[in-house]
Design goal:
Mean pLDDT: 75
Number of strands: 26
Largest sheet: 5 strands, antiparallel
Helix content: under 10%
Oligomer: single chain
Low-confidence stretches: none
Structural class: mainly beta
Shape: elongated
Order of helices and strands: EEEEEEEHEEEEEEHEEEEEEEEEEEEEH
Amino acid sequence: MEISRLQVGSVLSLAVDGSVQQTVTLPGVNANSQEFDAPNQLQGPAPVPVSVNLTLGPGWNDVTFLFKSATGERGDLGAGVISAAVAPDLSFTQIGPAPGASPVGRDRAFNAQAVAGPPGGLHGDPDLVGTVASNGGGNPWLAVALGVRGNVTYRLYPLPQQGNFDINFMHAFPNDWYDGDQRVLGMWFLSRNTRLKLSGLYYSLHAMPARALHNPKSLTALPIRVDGKLVTQPVFLSRGPHSVKSVDREVKIGLLSMDPVTLPKTRPFALRWQRRSPTAVDVTVPAKTDAASFLLVFGDAFHPEWQATVDGKLLDHVIVNGVSNGWVVPALPQGGTIALRFAGQRLYLIAGIVSLIALGLLTTLALKPELWPIRSSNP
């Protein structure tokens, strides 16, 4: 087995069915007061292998790990806590009768029900789903024998006495997990006082392996859509909620982090501004501008109806200093013209034209009543 020292002493006793059989001195160094291990992160000393000899009888064997408290150890990582939480990787290198061991009677209450392993070994990180019913005392367990690079490692996972269970292998057995070098050699449902009633057993795929993806590159360069638009470069977000979705249906976004983008500094260069009307401005960028990209700031108060285009392509509109309109302009080594237009003006013009037409019709009908379609008639 492999054990990390953490905040415990160097003495470990192993008891079988309540009787201490072996006491060993653990190799390696102790952790400092701030180090601890978690299933997904190892902060303490690296686990070291420990070899012991135990005599186990046929059937159920309760193996207890008894750590001796270390001087000045943390209360939340004391010997009692470690003994309750330890889950070392056990591998049997030699199985046979122990010299001088007395015969041990078979535990008649012990029961094991074998179940077929997942298709393809462990490829794809499967889930085992089902329902269990037990009338006996104690919780049932799932025992798994894993073949890892020529060795056999046994893992145990507790199950509820009654109800549904969903076991994800990667989460249940996180130590040194990699489905590329492990194979299920055997699986058993273990119970102590009664035979389990199992129903609805099936395997589902928790995660798809990279080799099965249609586009494995999505794992390192996932295409995404922000507010429905495909993003191929840094995007500037306005205030408020935004929708971020994966373009690849086979790859989900589990964790999203955003880093602010700082545009490269450029030397000041002249731009020619030409205001054609209160709602239309043309900005001329000279050729051989050495800026890869730059931020164009328009001093009018920010309004979402202001748009900037280069060769008919809309530019990203951002708020500058909380009050001004701004656009990120791509590199224009050959120069070009940026057209700033107030898009809402088109609606105002259309509304004005419709109003003028309506006013003209009403004026004409008022001056020439004979044009009205309804005429009075004398009785």
